[in-house]
Design brief:
By secondary structure, the protein is mainly α. 72% of the residues lie in helices and 2% in strands. Strands 1-2 form a two-stranded antiparallel ribbon. Helix 2 runs parallel beside helix 5, helix 3 runs antiparallel to helix 7 and helix 5 packs across helix 6. The longest helix is centred in the first third of the chain and has 31 residues. 45% of the residues are buried.
Amino acid sequence: MNETTTGLLRVARLDLTLLWRNRNALFTATGLPVMFAVLLAPMRGEQAEGVDVALLQGSGYLGFFLVFAVFMNLVTVFTARREDLTLKRLRGTALADGTILGGSVLLAAVLYLVQALGLLVVLAASFGGRTPADPLLMLTGMVLGAAVFALLALALSGVTPTSEMAQLTAVPIMFLCMMGAGVMFPLQALPQAAQEAARWVPLSPVVEIVRTGYFGQDHFAHGTHPEVGFLGGWAAVARSFAVLAVWLGIGRWLAARWFRWEPRRG
């Protein structure tokens, strides 16, 4: 195991310990996703466009959990570590900047993937779900989504004054993702112009990729969502990958511009 990997694991272990001690952050990262999963029960058996509503909603949650486990979690982590000077102290060690930040992102991404795996089991065991049609496509969308929301968390933490304010500054983005990414209702329910705008919400491409990988159907198409093969699934979400690439660029630019290692003076 090289020094970079060791450093990443050390920082991830530190964050896990601190997360366990912070009950509010722990509930946001783990409790809220459980609550949303429970809300699927009343939808069981309902149909919409030939798809079980509980499974359609649950597949949306597979993307939406990013907001809790990665985005809101990391905004709190980076803001708190900056304000208590932990980031400054870590930066004075032999750890590289990327390792210090990457360890926190690693833990958040693993937490998210564990939540997603747990939900997949629940969907299969309790809601008549299936094994994903294309697990690789789903995983690729989830990992890229985690990268986008980690960068956005870095950026937002830089303009968040205290860890107590972190949840409040992240809430507007949470609601934007919930309402505009096809999580609470299909985007097809919106007018065409609103659909096009909603597909640029940073969570939308993740939800579209995950749903396509889970059902093996083209969820850009209206009506019955035609079946797609392996290559067809990747082709169907090519635009979603392009939108994620744009958000990766935007997130990196915002993080470089706004993220701060030390508290603002004065």
